[in-house]
Amino acid sequence: MYKRILVALENSRADHTLLPHITAFARMCGDSTLLLVHVADGWAARNYDSLQLVDSEEMRADREYLTKTAEKLNAEGVSVETRLVLGDPAQQILRTAAAEQCDLIAMTSHGHRFLGDLLFGSTIEVVRHRTDIPLLIVRASGDK
């Protein structure tokens, strides 16, 4: 049913909650491919093209994280691709999901409430309101 699943990774502990769920789900679906996506959104990433910058240390670490995560999942028999994208997380998740013809988007929720969403933003809120692609939301461990 789901052939191409975008997995939005944060390069944080939250990924340790999401990955077991989505890899088990992908196995149940049969021949699904996981597209591991991390959005680098620091200053260098947001100005990368316009200022013709080189990769920041954060971007290099994010690429390495994606590569290591993909290697681990490949070793477990999961079909995986990776993308490091730059800019606003919600916009880039939406853009990548559409461009890559994904039929599911998997993300973690941190359980922020009103004030937390105002301070930290809510990528999930933007994504869920602007996509027709189904979402799988997993609450990050340790969040209340």
Describe this structure in words.
Helix 4 (89-99) packs parallel to helix 6. The chain has a single domain (4-139), classed as HUPs (Rossmann fold). With 144 residues, the protein is of the alpha/beta class. It has helices spanning 14-29, 43-46, 57-75, 89-99, 114-120, 123-130, and strands spanning 4-9, 33-40, 79-86, 104-109, 135-139. It starts with a strand and ends in a 5-residue tail after the last strand. The model is unreliable at 114-120 (pLDDT under 50).
Query: What is the CATH fold-level name?
Result: Rossmann fold
Supply the CATH class. Alpha Beta
Number of individual domains: 1
Low-confidence stretches: 114-120
Q: What CATH architecture would you give?
A: 3-Layer(aba) Sandwich
Shape call: globular
CATH superfamily: HUPs
Measured as a percent range, the helix fraction is 40-55%
H-E string = EHEHHEHEHHE
Keywords for this entry:
alpha/beta, Rossmann fold, five-stranded parallel β-sheet, 6 helices
Please give a quick description of this structure.
With 144 residues, this protein is an alpha/beta fold.
How is the secondary structure organized here?
Elements: E1 4-9, H1 14-29, E2 33-40, H2 43-46, H3 57-75, E3 79-86, H4 89-99, E4 104-109, H5 114-120, H6 123-130, E5 135-139
Parallel strand pairs: 1-2, 1-4, 2-3, 4-5
Helix pairs in contact: 4-6
